[in-house]
Design goal:
The protein contains 4 helices and no strands. The protein is mostly helical. The longest helix is centred in the first third of the chain and has 28 residues.
Amino acid sequence: MFKRLKEKWGIHSNKQLIIIFVVFGITGSLSVKLALPVLQYLSIEPDSFDSLPLGNVLYWILRILIIFPVYQVLLLGIGTIFFQFRFFWAFEKKIMNRLMGKRYFDENS
């Protein structure tokens, strides 16, 4: 299983694969921790949506839309701390190209 993943990501060592998993784990956990203060700063709280139909769903959609860019920035920052900027920059470009449906980011840069 890991062999296929290493080939797909262009990784040659198990050490680099472990570092990448650690970066994903730290970034995911940190983005969840930062979600609440960011949402509070923007005055987006679940209670505000109680009176709306499907208010809970709307709250979670907003939460995901706001936290997604925070996650992307954290991924690059933490990846850089672990000396994996090149991997995560290529990963970010792939994600953005898939989301935008076009090639906004040249995958060679």
